[in-house]
Amino acid sequence: MGTRNESLLPLLKKGIWAYFFLLIFEGALRKWFLPGLATPLLVIRDPLALWILFTVWQQGHLPNSIYLTLMMAVGIIGIFTALLFGHGSLPVAIFGARILLIHFPLMFAIGRIFDRDDVLQMGRILLLLAFPIALLIALQFYSPQSAWVNRGIGGDTEGSGFTGAMGFFRPSGTFSFTNGNSLFFQFVAVFVIYFWLNPDRINRVVLILSSIAVIMAIPLSISRSLFFSIGVSVLFAVTGALFSGKYAGKIILAGIILVFGLLILSQLSFFQTATEAFTNRFDTANTSEGGLQGVLADRYLGGLVGALKSSAEQPFFGYGIGMGTNVGSKLLTGKITFLIAEGEWGRVIGEMGAILGLSIIFIRLGLCLKLAVHGYRRMVYGDLLPWMLLSFGLLIIPQGQWAQPTNLGFSTLIGGLLFSSMRHAVPVVEHENIA
User: Fold this and answer.
1) What angle do CA 140, 146, 149 make, to 5 degrees?
2) Listed residue (98, 235, 193, 186) closest to 410, CA to CA
3) Which of 15, 198, 339, 384 places its Cα 20 to 30 Å from the Cα of 326?
4) Measured between alpha carbons, how far is 194 from 199 in angstroms, rounded to an integer?
5) Per-residue pLDDT of the chain (435 residues; tens, 9 = 90+)
6) d(CA 238, CA 252)
7) Residue 165 has what DSSP assignment?
8) Using CA atoms, how far apart are residues 400 and 169, in angstroms rounded to an integer?
9) CB 317 within 8 A of CB 86
10) For residues 138 and 325, what is the distance between their CA atoms, to the nearest angstrom?
11) Of the candidates 359, 360, 389, 357, the residue with the CA atom closest to the CA atom of residue 376
């Protein structure tokens, strides 16, 4: 391994912070402030990620990881199979391969640049942003789709909201699409819970306001994914508290504050209306998808069984990497549509074929298993930061829709922060460097 160039470290950290802020506000630029540049802004984070990755590699600090090596090998092979046996478009293949060759490796680069203090600072910034963005989605929720706050990509006056319930649309916040809003508050909820368990590490007013923001966001987003994800994070927190008696009282206190906050908000008409719309959406969608079991089986197993069944009717090397993305479909057909599958694992197997597609899936699952094992060890020793980050990472890294740039960005960021959170933390395992 090369010697770390300390003069580059602050610059690389600024690069990761730029990646973070572009992820949060890229949609705002594409919708409101630079609508004429909506198309190039879609990949605004790519050259930044490539620079960070190249610089870390040049310094000899990319880890010798089997997951990284295998994923990059599959990505390179995928370009050739797409050109020789698939759709045959080099731009589409490059766009698809960048997921595996740039953003996935960026997780490991972030793990070498950031440390635990950087992770906590990013959590504090997330909490600072939470309440203003919650107010924004409240305004979007109650405004018509023609309003400026609901403008779509490129200034589209038809709006950026997505059908929700009772005539209300799912707001997109500062993101290009509604999934970004849901992912943002899933991410915020992880740090809200962590800081309630460690309240001395953040301003109490910021913590209270961000907690209110998360509670507001659940009905306003009309997103079951957000609801389920927060439930998973709460379950992780309770599990962590069971292993460390010092957190038990804080869990009870946080629960009391949550109930108190819900009682206050439930008296407000705007919250009551949003809750009614969310409940309506929850009931109707659960009925159509077979209840909670059907929702979890479809969303969090990614349709693997269905993807494997359909792979028997697909080419051995699939239809070509990148074909399942919106950009790929636009370049190949002139319109945005699902050419392969809407589910992530179905898309991956459809693009790459059963062998290469399953390789990508198992690499993602294997990495998550490794992170989970190390996170569990930290939790047992009383360090809940990696454990709480896992509650979000284990949902989005294995089956997050990486074809969508916002989803890909959050997956990359949480993966990198998981690596970083395990640096300089618990004395018993402080020399362990899993990235």
Assistant:
1) 35
2) 186
3) 15
4) 8
5) 445 567 789 999 999 999 999 999 999 999 999 999 999 999 999 999 999 999 999 998 899 999 999 999 999 999 999 999 999 999 999 999 999 999 999 999 999 999 999 999 999 999 999 999 999 999 999 999 889 999 999 988 888 877 766 778 899 999 999 999 999 999 999 999 999 999 999 999 999 999 999 999 999 998 888 999 999 999 999 998 888 767 777 777 777 877 777 778 777 777 888 888 778 777 676 655 555 555 555 555 546 666 767 777 789 999 999 999 999 999 999 888 888 888 899 899 999 999 999 999 999 999 999 999 999 999 988 899 999 999 999 999 999 999 999 999 999 999 999 999 987 644 434 445 566
6) 10
7) E
8) 23
9) yes
10) 30
11) 389
DSSP state of 168: E
Cα separation, 225 vs 182, whole angstroms: 7
**Which amino acid does the sequence have at 281?**
R
363: Cβ–Cβ under 8 A, 6 or more apart, which residues? 67, 70, 71, 74
> How long a stretch of residues is the chain?
435
Other CB atoms within 10 A of residue 63 CB: 19
Nearest to 406 by CA among 110, 183, 162: 183
Question: 341 near 418, Cβ under 8 Å?
Answer: no
In the structure, how many helices (H) and strands (E) does the chain have? 18, 2
Phi, psi at 431, each rounded to 5°? -90, 0
Q: Which amino acid is at 338?
A: F
H or E element that contains 282: helix 269-288
Nearest to 415 by CA among 21, 45, 114: 114
Half-sphere exposure of 79 (CA within 13 A, CB side): 14
Compute the distance between CA of residue 309 and CA of residue 354 in angstroms, rounded to an integer: 10
For the chain, how are helix, strand and coil distributed in percent, rounded to 5?
75, 0, 25
Dist. CA 430–CA 132, nearest whole Å? 37
Distance CA 268, CA 245 (A): 37
Q: Map out the domains of the chain as residue ranges.
A: 9-57+86-429
- Residue type (1 letter), 214: V
Helix (H, G, I), strand (E, B) or coil at 170: strand
Alpha-carbon span 174 to 409, nearest angstrom: 14
Cα angle for residues 225, 230, 234 (degrees, 5° grid): 150
- Amino acid in the structure at residue 206: V
Distances (CA, A) of 142 to 99, 170, 277: 36, 10, 12
